[in-house]
Amino acid sequence: MKEQSAELAVVSNKTFEASTAVNLHHYDISSALQTTLEFDELIGIFCNKIQATIPHNGVEYNHPLFNMHYQRGVMARHSCSYVLKVEEQELGELKLTRTQRFGREELKMLESLLCCLIYPLRNATLFQQALRMAYTDPLTKTNNRAAFNDSLQREVKRAVRHGQHLSLVFVDIDHFKNINDQYGHACGDLALASVAAWLRDSVRGSDAVYRFGGEEFVILLADTDIDGAGIIAERLRADIESHTLAYGMDVLNLTASLGVATLQGDDSAELLVKRADKAMYAAKQRGRNRVELAA
């Protein structure tokens, strides 16, 4: 690899087989990397272990498959970047930066040590893929109820700890039973998948859509107060109403009722869900195809 900052190298299992042997026990890298399956922790451990041998000011790691971005330190002028792969499995890209050029011997050492990282990253990738499958609703491709329960607990704790707002939007497809009764469950499945896709397209990049159960979806809105959540919910309602669904020779116009609640000082996660759910049922009772805000 050249010393130019824009150079990009690939480290893979083939590199591992061809690498010059390194005293891995001295660096204690391999054993330290067996302690976690979290991408950011793996990168942090690796960089801490090599800091004395290959000093660097900043590190950046990206794994597009999981929308993973990790950065720490100061991103300086000179850099070396590596695409990591094992058995054709993409493991992300790692970049180290510092104010001085990386020497040839340093880069040679770094490339050998990176081979200690690729198999722990492979294990983390397989784990995250399995977790994603377990947390994904197969019909709608949204996150499922288990994923929502985990995310809700985590986001409530974060909001309380940092003094931030957290809002919840419940979405229920109107007259969904009639769709199943009149057109069959295949049409109902198409309606669910279509609404889920419309919701995913309409929410912000930082927001997640979950299938709560049946024809109900829920959206977590981090750092969003009741007014902001109401605006987002109204946009979601309008987007659903503006779409039409073609099924055979029939065209269906779908609508949804939405309830919005924001975390209050004495709320638990369960109470927040109940208040959003109650607001959604109020929208149903008041004519459907509308947004109701919880008190």
Brief summary:
The chain has about 300 residues and is α+β, with helices and mostly antiparallel strands. The chain has 10 helices and 12 strands.
**Arrangement of strands in the largest sheet:** 1-4-5-2-3
Proportion of helical residues: 40-55%
CATH superfamily of the largest domain: Reverse transcriptase/Diguanylate cyclase domain
Principal-axis shape equals elongated
Oligomer: single chain
Structural notes for this entry:
The chain is 46% helix and 25% strand. By secondary structure, it is of the alpha+beta class. It starts with 7 loop residues before the first strand and ends with a strand. It contains 10 helices and 12 strands. A hairpin with a 2-residue loop joins strand 4 and strand 5. Helix 4 (39-50) packs antiparallel against helix 5 (104-134), helix 7 (176-183) packs across helix 8 and helix 8 packs across helix 9 (226-242). The protein is elongated and about 70 Å long. It has 2 domains: 8-134, 2-Layer Sandwich (Beta-Lactamase); 145-293, Reverse transcriptase/Diguanylate cyclase domain (Alpha-Beta Plaits, 2-Layer Sandwich), CATH 3.30.70.270. The strands form 3 sheets. Strands 1-4-5-2-3 form a 5-stranded mixed sheet. It catalyses: 2 GTP = 3',3'-c-di-GMP + 2 diphosphate. Residues 164-295 form the GGDEF domain.
Key structural traits:
Alpha-Beta Plaits; alpha+beta; 295 residues; Beta-Lactamase
Draw up the topology in text.
Elements: E1 8-11, H1 13-18, H2 24-27, H3 29-32, H4 39-50, E2 58-63, E3 68-73, E4 78-86, E5 89-98, H5 104-134, H6 145-162, E6 166-173, H7 176-183, H8 185-202, E7 208-213, E8 216-222, H9 226-242, E9 244-247, E10 250-253, E11 256-262, H10 269-285, E12 291-293
Parallel strand pairs: 1-4, 11-12
Antiparallel strand pairs: 2-3, 2-5, 4-5, 6-8, 6-11, 7-8, 9-10
